[in-house]
Amino acid sequence: MPADLLVCDLEHRPPLAYVTARGTLDPLTATVLRQSVLKALTGEPAAVLVDLAGVTVADPVALTVFLSLSRAAAAWPGAQIVIHSAAPAVARDLDSFAIVRHTAVAAGLAEAEALAARQEGAVQVGWDVHGLAGGLAGGLAGGLAQSRDVVRAFCRRHGREALTGHAELVITELVVNAFRHGAAPVTAWVSIRGRYLHLAVRDRAPSLPRLPAPAGSVGGLMIVEALTVAWGATRTADGKTVWCTLRP
């Protein structure tokens, strides 16, 4: 393996995702690690366990990638990142850069799995968005009504009535965006972890959404950005997931 190469293997073993990194971590190869962990998050695991046993850190600044990854995991899907099996020198760098204050660090895999098991799991409901082949005037209306009904019932069932109005509006915009700019089939999720309500819609088109220019019409993702504390889009093996987080 070339000295400047970092390789990450990903395995999903629900409810956990496992990322095993091998090679040299520096500010350039940190992008590989970031993409691998974000890809792991698209499976909505309870936690992502990152194995650093085979990693040599060329520039400790690269470890700060875990700060942004921890924020992304907390925002969607409300998961936890646990670093484990780091060499002593890497463990010292994690401590000196205060990574341990924001991301759990374990000595080995067994301890990492134990830390993940202690985290309270998310309450989640997923559904297939039906009827999108019928066009805006027909099929989309059915998919939107279905999605709003699921979100409304979920919020009421779990004591989040105060978020119902915003959550219905946001899921509407996410589904419309998937219909107009994505590709079927479309699936959606609503979940709760702690104080946060998470919404996500996955479609089979790889192109990521972008906010319109300031001179553009107000709507769509601009509404999502205005009503949520965080939102984003992540490519998956068969398309992309657009997600967002609301809180009381």
Write the layout of secondary structure elements.
Elements: E1 6-13, E2 16-25, H1 30-41, E3 47-57, H2 65-75, E4 80-84, H3 88-96, E5 104-106, H4 109-117, E6 123-128, H5 139-157, H6 164-181, E7 187-193, E8 196-203, H7 221-227, E9 230-236, E10 239-246
Parallel strand pairs: 2-3, 3-4, 4-5
Antiparallel strand pairs: 1-2, 6-7, 7-8, 8-10, 9-10
Helix pairs in contact: 1-2, 5-6, 6-7
Explain this structure.
The protein is of the alpha/beta class and 248 residues long. The chain has 2 domains: 6-117, STAS domain (Transcription Regulator spoIIAA), CATH 3.30.750.24; 123-246, 2-Layer Sandwich (Heat Shock Protein 90). 34% of the residues lie in helices and 29% in strands. The chain contains 7 helices and 10 strands. The strands form 2 sheets. Strands 1-2-3-4-5 form a 5-stranded mixed β-sheet, with helices on both faces. Strands 6-7-8-10-9 form a 5-stranded antiparallel β-sheet. Strand 3, helix 2 and strand 4 form a beta-alpha-beta unit. Helix 1 packs parallel to helix 2 and helix 6 (164-181) packs antiparallel against helix 7 (221-227). The longest helix has 19 residues, at 139-157. The radius of gyration is 19 Å and the shape is elongated. The protein starts with 5 loop residues before the first strand and ends with a strand. Residues 133-137 have low confidence and may be disordered. Residues 6-116 form the STAS domain. InterPro entries: Anti-sigma-factor_SerPK, HATPase_C_sf, MlaB-like_STAS, STAS_dom, STAS_dom_sf. Pfam families: STAS_2. This is STAS domain-containing protein.
